[in-house]
Amino acid sequence: MPLENPILSISERVTELNSRYRNQKTEDVLRDILKDPLFGPVALVSSFGAEAVVLLHMISVIDPATPVIFIDTEMLFPQTLAYQKDLAEKFGLTDVRRITPSREAVFQRDTDNLLHLADRDSCCALRKTEPLERALIGFDAWIGGRKRFQGGVRVAIEMFENEADTRIKINPLAHWSREDVADYITVNTLPRHPLVAKGYLSIGCAPCTTPVSAGEDYRAGRWRGEEKTECGIHLASHVPNSGEPEVNTAVIVNDEGFAPDDWDRGYSVFEDMDDLSETQKSALAIDLPNTFDATDLLPWIDQIDLIRVEFPVFSDGRGFSLAQRLRLLGYHGRLRAKGHVLADQYAMVRRSGFDEVEISHELANRQPQSQWSARAAWQTHNYQQKFYQST
Ligand code: SF4
User: Fold this and answer.
1) What's the chain's average pLDDT?
2) Which protein residue's CA is at the shortest distance from atom 1 of ligand 1?
3) What distance in angstroms lies between residue 99's CA and the mean position of ligand 1's atoms?
């Protein structure tokens, strides 16, 4: 059944799938997912980390031509890159897609590759979330390796999840125990990631992963000592939350959390400025594309109360540059980022000079208030504060 089936919504389909496959053997579930054309295009997303070998082995047995998306953040351990090549060859995987961050985005947002030291959420957005989002275009569902025993937000995952009413996320190992994983690897004599022997129970990027001591949490080595527990690629599923807005309107995100959109004044795109009445110009809010030349606003810059900058896609960083330019040119009014901005990017949005973000109701449902509020440390490098202090 294609996911766009008009009879069942994705949410209804997820409920039905969880019910149908609740007591099925994992390999049988995977076989159905990969072999039944009614599921639509499905990819396995693999980190080639500590336990990735289980799902990679299973899909190699069922269909080695299954697309495997490997997000190479360009911050991974060299052992992970070598392990990825070894496993792909050993298992005969014929469609491993190594996905790297956008060159342009890295150039704009992490020129010296040190963003992870200043803002890990923004680094994960740049190097993981955004590349994955691009890689998943065209897929109706994707398979991941999360398990409930890994703790944190993972304790409540289902085998099938609704990802923002756009795709189904499949966690075939959700109910597996740590012993199940170890047994599968032993029985099938599968090669381990070389860092497992050195105490790495969960393996991500080199700067953000440390070994785990006996008695520590399973994922204690990831972003050690920080509140962060997920890179962001698993935070897009719909999770009911009391902070969610109920109506289908734009949602404003600021440092206080979610707020209703108060933009009830007349506004115009910049091209219409000359046609506005004096009344309109006295309380002016305008939309700007992120390609706009900020110097063109100089004649009006003190008159504008609110500027809204469009972010057409997650990976387009030009909106950040425009915001910084507007502030440097002396714009002191409200500045709003509108469109495809993730909670992971909130710190960067604020430091660029924006006051707030305007997101869709749908995105607010996928990324509820708690996820945005968790990015409260953006003041560490407060661009706006520094700017105002120096003027
Ligand atoms: S895990 Fe660390 S290095 Fe990797 S993308 Fe996230 S912040 Fe950056």
Assistant:
1) 82
2) 205
3) 15
Nearest CA-CA partner of 28 in 156, 186, 159: 159
Q: How many CB atoms are closer than 10 A to CB 244?
A: 16
According to the model, what pLDDT value does residue 12 have? 86
- pTM tops 0.90, yes or no: no
Calculate mean pLDDT across residues 31-51: 90
Question: Is the distance from CB of 140 to CB of 2 less than 8 angstroms?
Answer: yes
Confidence check: pLDDT of 386 > 50: no
**Helical residues (DSSP H) of 52-170, grouped into ranges:** 53-62, 78-91, 103-109, 115-118, 120-124, 130-135
Contacts of 265 (CB under 8 A, 6+ apart): 283, 284, 285, 305, 306
Domains and CATH numbers, the chain: 10-208 (3.40.50.620), 251-389 (3.20.20.70)
Residue 37: burial class (beta carbons within 10 Å; 0-12, 13-18, 19+) = exposed
Residue of 123, 205, 208, 231 marked active site = 231
Q: Which residues line ligand 1 (CB under 6 A)?
A: 73, 75, 116, 120, 123-124, 127-128, 204-205, 207-208, 231
pLDDT tens-digit readout, 88-102: 999 999 999 999 998
pLDDT at res. 367 = 72
pLDDT tier, 272 (very low <50, low <70, confident <90, very high otherwise): low
- Give the CA radius of gyration of the chain: 23
Q: Is 208 a catalytic residue?
A: no
Do the beta carbons of residue 59 and residue 30 sit within 8 Å? yes
